[in-house]
Specification:
Layout lengths: L4 H8 L3 H8 L7 H13 L6 H11 L2 E6 L5 H19 L3 E6 L5 H13 L4 E4 L5 H12 L5 E4 L10 E4 L2 H15 L4 E7 L5 H17 L3 E8 L4 H14 L3 E6 L4 H10 L7 E5 L3 H8 L5 E4 L2 H18 L7 E3 L3 E3 L5
Parallel strand pairs: 1-2, 1-3, 3-4, 4-5, 5-11, 6-7, 6-8, 8-9, 9-10
Antiparallel strand pairs: 10-12
Helix pairs in contact: 1-2, 1-3, 2-3, 5-13, 6-7, 8-9, 10-11
């Protein structure tokens, strides 16, 4: 049976009202007595009523914001599903969650939203960051000066005092892709990374992990300078055309992010759909289609739903139960798929 306030009061030799004030930090209780009451409550396994705490959250007007960059991409639509599930759960328990979409990678828009959230006294923020020194300073200001906790998702900016990160370990994902690439092209040849936005930390980490593993484990493979599509299929297609013209013996392409359609269509058009090996990311319908056609050899997945759901719930648990996240880096699982196990 759950421990009651009356049981704690009897164990501490004080009134029930004194226990209630001590556990809720309402003052008018001697500091030593309050500490003794809290210690007894902990030893007895006391857990406050979740319904009561939810009511308290509603009275405190706890508000959580979620800022999603590149919201137009299919992957972020999956992340949004997780966010909306968390929103429904949080709002059923007295809190509120609002989503602020940002098209593309736009640090200025993110900072403008953050300023608005500060003015409107939001309690915590979950956001997709980007590589921008001013945005990093803004996150640091919110965490240190304003004491507004921030959880990063999908991409991370480590030196900002953010509370924690939920998403893929980009370096390990890139290393995984490099290992696969080395095996399927025979440990020699020419490979290139085609990435998305140059300011996307997650994609940059994938590229770094891929490049470092290729250099360390497959020294006979030549790394061609990374190209950036900025998540645009037309740009990605033109990049492929130029690469094949410049490097007719190109062996492999590692796609760190979106614009898969543009890359694969160009390869097919140029008759290279089977001869150039391709590794991509995420189990999206477009990506699966090209894997089934044999143009993509491997897809490396991450859990989009968790990346949306868990940051909101981490903040909610912080406000509701005063629970800090268990780990600073909450990495989602790296999963490898081929057309045979998709």
């Amino acid at each position: 049976m759950p421990v009651t306030l009356q049981q704690i009061a009897e164990a501490a030799g004080v009134s029930r009202g004194t226990v209630d004030r001590a556990l809720k930090n309402r003052g008018r209780v001697n500091a030593e007595v309050a500490e003794r009451i809290r210690k007894i409550a902990k030893e007895m396994g006391y857990q406050p009523s979740r319904a009561g705490r939810a009511l308290a959250m509603a009275k405190k007007n706890v508000k959580i914001a979620v800022i999603l960059q590149s919201v137009q991409t299919p992957f972020m639509n999956l992340v949004l599903e997780g966010v909306l599930a968390a929103k429904q759960e949080v709002e059923s328990l007295g809190g509120s969650v609002e989503v602020f979409p940002v098209k593309g990678v736009d640090a200025q828009s993110v900072m403008e939203i953050m300023d608005k959230l500060y003015e409107e006294q939001y309690s915590g923020i979950a956001l997709v960051p980007s590589e921008d020194s001013v945005l990093k300073n803004k996150i640091r200001q919110f965490a240190e000066e304003y004491e507004i906790p921030i959880v990063t998702l999908n991409s991370d900016v480590e030196d900002t005092k953010r509370l924690c990160y939920v998403g893929q370990n980009g370096i390990q994902s890139g290393r995984t892709a490099a290992g696969l690439m080395g095996e399927i092209i025979g440990e020699k040849g020419q490979v290139v990374v085609i990435s998305g936005h140059i300011s996307n930390p997650s994609l940059n980490n994938r590229a770094r992990g891929f490049q470092s593993e290729i250099m360390d484990e497959f020294p006979e493979i030549e790394l061609i300078h990374t190209r950036y599509s900025y998540d645009d299929d037309w740009v990605a297609g033109k990049i492929v055309e130029e690469l094949i013209e410049q490097y007719p013996n190109l062996s492999g392409i590692y796609i760190t992010g979106p614009a898969v359609k543009g890359i694969c269509e160009a390869l097919e058009k140029l008759g290279k759909g089977k001869s150039i090996k391709v590794i991509g990311n995420d189990f999206l319908s477009e990506n699966k289609k090209w894997m089934e056609k044999g143009v993509i050899n491997f897809l490396i997945g991450q859990d989009a739903y968790v990346q949306g759901y868990e940051p909101v719930m981490i903040l909610f648990r912080l406000f509701l139960d005063h629970k800090e996240p268990k780990e600073e880096y909450q990495y989602t699982e790296i999963v490898i798929k081929t057309k045979y196990n998709m």
